[in-house]
Amino acid sequence: MQLQLNVQQTQKLIMTPKLKQALAVLQYSREELLEKIDDELLNNPLLEVEEENVELKQLISLN
After folding, report:
1. Could you read off the pLDDT of 16-63 as tens digits, one per residue?
2. Is the overall model pTM greater than 0.70, yes or no?
3. Both ends of the chain: CA-CA distance in Å?
4. Residue 8 domain-assigned?
5. Could you give the C-alpha distances from 26 to 17, 20, 51, in angstroms and in order?
6. Is 43 in a helix, a strand, or coil?
7. How many CA atoms lie within 13 A of 52 on its CB side?
8. Is 20 among the domain residues?
9. Among 8, 30, 31, 52, which has the minimal tally of Cβ within 10 Å of its Cβ?
10. Alpha carbons 33 and 13: distance in angstroms, whole number
């Protein structure tokens, strides 16, 4: 009679829509990212740049 014990561990990465979006954003150049932020601000009335984030406002207005 022979007893045997096997243990196996696997790890999977699931590409969720949120992860896909994050990877896409990380690939944008600086200019593309600013343009995307500007587009989102124009198309979504619920988004706004906070007053404290003056630097982002200036960068967006330069594009």
Report:
1. 999 999 999 999 998 898 889 889 989 999 988 777 777 777 777 765
2. no
3. 76
4. no
5. 14, 10, 25
6. helix
7. 0
8. no
9. 8
10. 26
Residue found by looking up tokens 């007893």 in the block: 3
Lowest model confidence (mean pLDDT) among 8-12, 13-17, 31-35: 31-35
CA distance 60 to 63: 6
**Residues of the domain holding 58:** 29-62
Helices (H), 1-63: 17-26, 30-43, 54-62
| Residue 42 domain flag | yes
Please give the structure tokens belonging to residue 53: 């984030």
Return the structure tokens found at 8. 């196996």
CB 41 within 8 A of CB 49: yes
Q: Based on the structure, what is the number of domains in the chain? A: 1
Instruction: Write out the two tokens for 38.
Output: 């500007």
pLDDT of residue 63: 59
